[in-house]
Amino acid sequence: MRLDQKVIIITGSCTGIGKGIAKRCVAEGARVVIHGLEPELGQELVQELGPDNAVLHIEDLATEGVAERLVALAVQTFGRLDAVVNNAAIVASSNLKTTDLAFFRRMLEVNTLAPFALIKAALPQLQQNRGCVLNIGSVNGWSGEPDLLAYSVSKGALMTLTRNLGDTLAREAGVRVNQINPGWVLTENEARRKHEQGLAADWYKDISPVFAPAGRILWPAEIAAAAIYWLADESGPVSGQIVDLEQYPLIGRNPPKN
User: Fold this and answer.
1) What is the structure's pLDDT at 252?
2) What is the mean pLDDT of the chain?
3) Terminal alpha carbon distance of the chain
């Protein structure tokens, strides 16, 4: 097993990509701290994974001291901490006209500052076990869509955090920090958001090849499969890297003509 006996905190893991990563981590031999804001869904996942393999913490990441509580729960429950997956994020539409400072601050607090706080709180344990951090960003972090202003900025800042700490912590503490940037993923929340925006309930079954050359968008399990490499020892000394997980190139692409 690629993650045998490793203990991993995965934020935002009651649903979506985080849930997929948690399930794959346990399948690879890890024990996980499940985190999110949906207690019933979290409990269901813990039962599915097995109480010996998973423990649940429900709390808003913007709350003071949550990072320290997550680390303490991992150590108290499983005796160690080997990795952190900063997956939780607010995904919400906004542009220059609709973005006020309160909204922007909330977005940065959860999507950028919370990952920083958790890395900082976990560092003593990660250094002791020569562990690692995996940040889950977004391809929108490179510039973003017109109506994803605040979200895109928060993910762009996360990329800079990853590159900076991936360099410094690898040299100073033996802790690797990397990031994967998923493209369009069919999570429960994404399916609901698009339906609420006026699309049909089964909108994901008929997507333009401009956006999905493969005829479908990505699945959480596919992001989870990629995450395992970065959490496993097989990724060796690689640190400070950003990897886009999308089905077409972001630079130099020639979209098909309709």
Assistant:
1) 84
2) 96
3) 46
- Scanning the chain, the segments in alpha helix (DSSP H) are 16-27, 39-49, 66-78, 101-108, 114-128, 149-172, 188-196, 220-231
**Does the pTM of the predicted model rise above 0.85?**
yes
Q: What angle do CA 110, 224, 51 make, to 5 degrees?
A: 80
Which structure tokens are listed for 106? 């909330």
Using CA atoms, how far apart are residues 131 and 222, in angstroms rounded to an integer? 23
DSSP helix/strand/coil, 176: strand
Q: Is residue 151 among the annotated active site residues?
A: yes
Assigned CATH for 7-183+218-245? 3.40.50.720
The pLDDT value given to residue 91: 95
- pLDDT tens track for 35-44: 999 999 999 9
Question: Which residue among the candidates 151, 204, 229, 248 is catalytic per the annotation?
Answer: 151
Could you tell me the residue ranges of all domains in the chain?
7-183+218-245
Contact 240, 170 (CB under 8 A): yes
How does pLDDT run across 155-168, given as a tens digit for each residue?
Answer: 999 999 999 999 99
- Residue 21 to residue 26: CA distance in whole angstroms: 9
Q: What gap in Å lies between CA 85 and CA 83, rounded to an integer?
A: 7
**Residue whose entry in the numeric block shows the structure tokens 């909204």:** 103
Separation between Cα atoms, residue 142 and residue 159, nearest integer Å: 9
- CA–CA dist 223, 143 (Å, integer): 21
175 burial level (CB within 10 Å; 0-12, 13-18, 19+): buried
